[in-house]
Amino acid sequence: MKTALLSEHSRQFEQLRFAYPVVSRRSRGLSLGLNVNPDKVCNFDCPYCQVDRTVPPRDKAVDFDIMVAEIDGLLAMAASGAIWQHPKFADTPEQYRRVNDIAFAGDGEPTTYARLGEAIREVKRLREKHGLAEAKIIVLTNALLLNRPEVMEALSELRHGPYEIWAKLDAGTQEYFEFIAGRKLSLQRVVDNIAQAGKQLELTIQSLFPTVDGNDPGEDEYAAYAGRINEITAAGANLRLLQLYTTARRPAQDRIGMIDDARMDEIGAFIASKVDVPVEVYYGRHWDSAD
């Protein structure tokens, strides 16, 4: 497969405003994204984030009906196979020509979207309508709001069908967490939120480790991170998987770089030796490199 196909995660497809298709390295197939934060507002300010907040957003709010119509159309294209005739996806190898998921992601924190539960219900309906009942619904979250009843009520709509919740945890120590989140927030709050939410719903932990000024976070940070994972599982949370990855798209800050493949393997092995949760490692790709 062309490397560019796996690294191209543009949130603009044709003239669609809120829905977008990508072939994802983690999904190993087609992922249909929903951007429920088109205003680019986020409660984190991660230095590795690829969202360019210096450019004004095209939309300042979600038009719910248009978003539903757009994902309806993409699901129809995916179900019929018509999407593979589009020039962007015409070179996709056969093994990747499958619909893996519909993901709530976008340019901010999806759990801040007030109509998230309603949107999940609509996606579940459309998934059945197009005969794609096995396609997972995925919600990405930085976990900061998982202590809110209305957020957990919205996420509870994921039940009764395949789903994944990818909760972000990028740090083990408070100091590094404040840097990587770009905010003076409590790491313990995030850890506690994940632990409590994981008692109600199965979670996948999504962790991005970059280099900063050429150095990765280091063994002390990875050991502290593993300790946080063990704290979460000891509290009774159901963790499906740890996804460990590094930068693959141009970050917000020039200080941020990519950890090489061999080092990512070392990090993955180190963390796997200290936790009782399956670990998967995903390699990066430098944004300035040739395809």
Which key features would you list for this structure?
single chain; 291 residues; alpha/beta; TIM Barrel; eight-stranded mixed β-sheet; two-stranded antiparallel ribbon; 10 strands; 31% helix; 18% strand; globular; disordered N terminus
Spatial strand sequence of the major β-sheet: 1-2-3-4-5-6-8-10
Number of distinct helices: 8
Which radius of gyration do the C-alpha atoms yield? Answer: 18 Å
- Terminal Cα separation, in Å? 11 Å
Chain-wise SSE layout:
Elements: H1 3-7, E1 19-24, E2 29-35, H2 64-80, E3 99-105, H3 116-129, E4 136-141, H4 149-155, E5 163-168, H5 174-181, H6 187-197, E6 203-208, E7 211-212, H7 219-234, E8 239-245, E9 256-257, H8 261-272, E10 279-282
Parallel strand pairs: 2-3, 3-4, 4-5, 5-6, 6-8, 8-10
Antiparallel strand pairs: 1-2, 7-9
Structure write-up:
With 291 residues, the chain is of the alpha/beta class. The chain has a single domain (3-282), classed as TIM Barrel (Alpha-Beta Barrel), CATH 3.20.20.70. Helix content is 31%, strand content 18%. The protein is built from 8 helices and 10 strands. It has helices at 3-7, 64-80, 116-129, 149-155, 174-181, 187-197, 219-234, 261-272; strands at 19-24, 29-35, 99-105, 136-141, 163-168, 203-208, 211-212, 239-245, 256-257, 279-282. The strands form 2 sheets. An 8-stranded mixed β-sheet has the order 1-2-3-4-5-6-8-10. Strand 3 (99-105), helix 3 (116-129) and strand 4 (136-141) form a beta-alpha-beta unit. The radius of gyration is 18 Å and the shape is globular.
